[in-house]
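Intended use. Records such as the Alpha-1,3-glucosyltransferase entry shown here are meant for training and evaluating sequence-to-structure methods. They are not intended to support clinical decisions.
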Amino acid sequence: MSAFATASSPASSRSASPREVGERGRLAPTLAAGVALRCVVALGPHSGQGTPPMYGDYEAQRHWMELTTALPVRSWYEPGPDNDLQYWGLDYPPLTAFHSWLLGIVGHGVDPPCFALHSSRGHESLRCKAFLRASVLVSDLLIYLPGALWSSNFFGGRRTAQQLWMLLPLVIIDHGHFQYNGVCLGFCLAASGCVARSWHVLGSVFFTSALLYKQIALYYAPVFFFAILGQCLRGRNLSAVAWGVARAGAAVLGTVLLLLGPWLLGERPAAEVGQVLHRMFPFARGLYEDKVANVWCSISVVLKVQRLVSPERLPLLCGSTTLLALLPSAFCLFRRTAGPGTFAAALFTSSMSFFLFAFQVHEKGVLFPCLAFCLLAGAAPSGVTRKMAPALALQFQLVSLFSMYPLMVKDDLCLAYLFSVSALLVALVLQLGHHSKVFWVGSLLFPGLVAHALHALVPPPARYPDLWTLLITSASCGYFLLSLLGVTYLQLLGAFDEKPKDL
């Protein structure tokens, strides 16, 4: 029995009760609806569709499949005549590269011209699109869905599994815009379930895999570190503590060595691994990309941090601010009363702190606090927080989608966006009590309608062409800041330490 798991853990040897069998059966319609939703969203446009010369993230993913199947492994991150790093050079960790290679191998059998070296740039045939769209769905079914089902056993059960599978911001980004965030998040969910069960070795392997699939998994890294360390420190004696820490550390190191093996075994291992890391962390790109709902972008209207702080010190400023914001909540994992809610709250505050204060933030990074809030809603203890958490999780998804509205316009995904917002509003109305509906829905709907109307109908002043976009992202940033402060405050009070009665 772990610090987080309860006697109803699925890992126990007892047979499933009739109630549990019924709950699993009620998941089937949600799973089918999630697959159907993904297929419908995939029928729409993708990022950069028909917009040369760089196109968009769809082209980046396709191009990586082209490169990894045409070049030797150790050339994937190196500049060369067949690898122009200025044209969507591979800048994700090795597990993404191996995933691209595997998909590219299959893709060559489906539509060879789509993955032909050089000549396939901008290739957007119907067969190629169908294959790439299907690859995201299959990745969700093989990695994200099992992670969601496993972790939900410790963070609220069936309802949490349903919310994770129907996480609309993730569906739009992965199946509309086009990315494979579900793979990284699936590994994170699997790791969360393992940590809840005190399976430190397997949890370390899963989370390190997430980190070596997408470096943005760093958003959760402090929480997994403190959670595993905190559980190890509860050992019976010093040798048990040392053994637990050593096993977790060995699992991390072994996973890193395995996935970086081709570069570590090269003729110049230090230089080759250094090039991989350089591509993963491109500090030269600047503080943020596009208009993102974080603090640095929001205050740029009145205070441009880039002009006050040297480029060399900007990452240090961002890192220090991020750590100061997340550490109070993360330290709560050392408490002996820490439970699933404590862990989920720490995941939220850590990822929210990274999104708001870190260096080189993308608008899609909000998916990580979105996922954490779903876990928190399921694992929140009984009382006021338990009653409010599901509605707050829906509200957070709404604001997250709202913060990405400029990206939706850019990718021509407004129809999918409108459907998702409407669905979340309906779910929020059904979730709330009678007296709360007018306040909650009105507080979201009226400001949202005004902001959308301004963005769509009123031309911004010539001197401030991004005014309406900044209005949307700055308002979202304010909400995210309040969410971070609120969850941190409740975490410090121990509001999430009590285990839910229905876990």
